[in-house]
Design a protein that fits this description.
Blueprint (H helix, E strand, L loop, with lengths): L1 H5 L2 H17 L3 H17 L5 H25 L4 H27 L3 H10 L4 H30 L9 H10 L1 H21 L30
Helix pairs in contact: 2-5, 3-5, 4-5, 6-7, 7-9
């Protein structure tokens, strides 16, 4: 698993995009569902952290996609079995896509992303966007879990309840999560201003970035 963390961020990102394209090119659910199951199996084999939490979210996503697409397609006059087949195909695509990028997020540290972007000489804006995109989502997920722990500490039963109540409680966490997201964005913006972030200034990297990203600089290596 540690070697997956050291793998170049762009190699992982490119692989995820390629597999995502394969998932979206699947002709129907008979191909899409096995492919999504294969992607999930790969996450389990590689022991991606916090996989259980992702699987719960993926299950909820699958249910919401199937129900919403079924209702939409049935209102358009499509036969129930045909509507279910289309809904299952879309759910499989989304599960495969989210699983692939979940893998990228969980195996890429902000430092490794910055090092890879700097070595590739990407523009500062692109580097900033990639770092924030793949760094802030895990932060918000952890905040979502902390909000749930705070609800439990206040005596709210959110575990041994019906699915509809779990869904309602999960949606209720959206307001504090949104507030925390705004605060985090403000803190990041303030930090960038405080440290003199300038889009016109070129950045350097102290890591050796190739196919693999070296975790640290050795004493004999010069700073580049």
């Amino acid at each position: 698993m540690s070697r997956l963390h050291d793998l170049n961020f762009f190699v992982k990102l490119g692989t995820a995009f390629a597999l995502m394209i394969v998932a979206w090119l699947a002709p129907d659910w008979r191909w899409g569902i096995p492919f999504a199951a294969l992607v999930l199996a790969l996450l389990w084999v590689t022991r991606v952290p916090k996989l259980g939490g992702y699987l719960k979210g993926a299950g909820l996503l699958t249910l919401m996609v199937i129900v919403s697409w079924m209702i939409n397609l049935l209102l358009q006059g499509i036969a129930p079995l045909d509507a279910l087949a289309i809904a299952a195909k879309m759910a499989a695509r989304l599960v495969a896509t989210t699983a692939l990028f979940y893998f990228v997020m969980e195996t890429s540290t902000p430092g490794a992303i910055l090092a890879a972007c700097s070595a590739a000489r990407l523009p500062a804006v692109a580097t900033l966007v990639l770092s924030l995109l793949f760094g802030i989502i895990p932060m918000l997920r952890d905040e979502f879990e902390r909000i749930a722990d705070a609800q439990r500490a206040r005596g709210m039963e959110i575990d041994d309840v019906s699915f509809l109540k779990k869904l309602r409680f999960a949606l209720a966490r959206g307001v504090p999560l949104l507030v925390q997201a705004i605060r985090t964005a403000h803190a990041i913006s303030f930090s960038l201003t405080l440290y003199g972030f300038d889009l016109s200034r070129k950045r350097t990297t102290w890591r050796d970035v190739g196919l693999m990203v070296e975790p640290r600089m050795t004493w004999k290596d010069p700073i580049r």
